[in-house]
């Protein structure tokens, strides 16, 4: 009989309750969540998993030869060390690079430190590794070279900011799910509205509402159209329809629809006149007056593979009722990724229904669990990060370029900039050897700095490219405040277990280093983790009290249960704009939705959305050699690479390896059967996966989600004579291209890649278990 009490906790994939059960945890979702994510159960056996790091580790080559560029990173071994010695070594190296001695003015020593440290880390308002790292680097180095935008949405973020206004408009604004449930006649969903990514929300979610809202809408007669290479990018809903254009051709499909709206005079000219600017510059392109190519449905059919009649029918249906146009992040994580997002906005503007409840446009509704939900009326706790006095930054996905090419020129948002010269990389709470493209190139890039320091709870491939690794606690081993934008509960994250081995909280690691560098007081302000949590909690507590709502003091909150947070009843930004386009103008140059955008034209891209042929698509020359479009989307059973060893993630694998899905027709043509081990390859490398056949995958597409822990091996494919590098665990980022989405955003373009697929005959190389990704020697 287990009579241990349940405690509350939270994660990016949902709030939950848990209690000790043997060496693991028994986990239950909150009763209030109508559709909890199974990913919460990955934590059950994580606390003492063999992949955990229990002691600091230092790379042998770094210990023997000192700091400096080193090609051995990624294939070296690690020595365990006690905390005092490891902290002294790290502090010594930071001091050598200028930490702790800040000039009064002029360049800061942090100008040679990359602290962008992109990654999702864990939920919790205080123990957020990036925030703690940034505060640390600001304290000891006077700042750091940072990163801007996200892997999620760089191309979309940049273009939407310019043509649609601030980022909050494009992601966190109406329509809300309940409006779709009640009012939409049609939802035209580019990239679908997949329940898979909507399991997750940054900072956590206490309720998953999308499935219920879509089911209510469909029962009422709303028609959902899933435009995607995968039909399960939409749940099975009555009346739903699947349209599967060639990946990366959505712009052509939208242009064909736009052409039909023009031809049939179904365009809302009043809306265009009141709320947009530059349609007159776009129309000649649509008609073919500027380039001799009318963007007719037949033209679009040849590019997309969707019959012209279907394109006309979709356009007519969209104009016939209240239509919501939704576009996911995934479409812009690609070459020329700005174009489909911008064109979807133009298509929605031509339909001109933005004023109607349940109609209009959203970007990323289907990409995260916190979209389509009302914002909060109170501010959330927040840790101050201090001031970064280093002005330099990179667009986040240019990490390999930065390390490989100091001083090189590149463009971003129309400006020419130059890469900094980086001597130290400090990463906490991210896994670039999961998230970045062309991972062999990233290995070459990680060979360049003098020193790389990483904090993680587990021995990831990123840790295996570091010089000094500090073992961090898992979220479950510490207390924190769980809260997130658009979520109506604040959750006490109660401790569920003791720290593994000698693992320490990120905060304590930074505090110990700061003290060694003479900056302890500046970093900690004399507070421990609990003291900080109490301090940052006050902001929310006071706001609740001012509104006359229950506002327990911190100790009672941590001992008690979830606290309800009030929702804002302010009309959404777009509602205000639609009510008064002059008084509530959008923060764009024209104050309106920009269909033609002079700023983008000045930055060197066409001034309105256009179809541009990418290099890696099924209609291009490269498809002769690499005939499959790899869709590397977000994984079903985990968040990115986190807790990949958990039971829910492992269930999605076969024989310990990631599964790739393909249409049965393609498999029959290639002589493949379900369960075969297959090699996906292109000029950048190879990945092994286990084949699953599914009619839910478009022909000539292969889906291999991200998240497998990177395990490159030099192998000779059966029947061949030359070795190549192959990830035996099935991480698709050995295959993806490191090119920027465009000269405007330089965003991540990792979603779509061309590959060839063959069967791995004969003896199959074993996958590498999680515990062996980081080669450790006993101390
Ligand atoms: N090909 C391709 N690539 C992609 C994508 C794609 O669609 N296709 N998607 C991209 C997107 S959208 C994203 S957001 C990125 C995600 O990339 P990341 O955010 O880098 O991936 P995570 O696996 O979440 O990495 C988080 C790391 O932090 C560690 N961690 C968790 N909690 C703590 C903590 O408290 N302290 C410390 N020190 N460490 C902690 C985890 O163990 C893990 O190693 O991937 C991108 N990569
Ligand atoms: N379970 C789970 N959920 C997650 C995450 C996770 O790792 N695991 N990560 C979270 C993060 S950080 C982010 S940023 C979001 C990402 O959210 P998204 O980027 O929206 O999610 P993806 O799964 O990458 O892509 C959604 C679908 O887009 C489709 N797609 C790909 N290319 C094209 C195309 O050219 N045209 C069309 N029409 N469709 C295309 C693919 O079939 C894919 O399944 O997900 C979040 N949610
Ligand atoms: Mo993301």
TrEMBL record:
**Mind telling me which GO cellular component terms the entry cites?**
outer membrane-bounded periplasmic space
Domain Molybdopterin oxidoreductase N-terminal stretches: 9-46
Domain (Molybdopterin oxidoreductase) spans 52-515
Identify the cofactor(s): Mo-bis(molybdopterin guanine dinucleotide)
**Gene3D superfamilies this protein is in?**
2.40.40.20, 3.40.50.740, Dimethylsulfoxide Reductase, domain 2, Dimethylsulfoxide Reductase, domain 3
- Which parts of the sequence belong to the Molybdopterin dinucleotide-binding domain? 628-748
Does the keyword section mention Oxidoreductase?
yes
Q: Which GO terms describe its molecular function?
A: electron transfer activity; molybdenum ion binding; molybdopterin cofactor binding; oxidoreductase activity; transferase activity
Task: Give the keywords, sorted.
Answer: Metal-binding, Molybdenum, Oxidoreductase, Transferase
Instruction: Name the Pfam families for this protein.
Output: Molybdopterin, Molybdopterin_N, Molydop_binding
Q: Which residues form the signal peptide?
A: none
Any single GO BP term: anaerobic respiration
**Membership in a protein family:** Belongs to the prokaryotic molybdopterin-containing oxidoreductase family.
The molecule here is called Asp-tRNA(Asn)/Glu-tRNA(Gln) amidotransferase GatCAB subunit C
> Whose protein is this, by species?
Paenirhodobacter populi
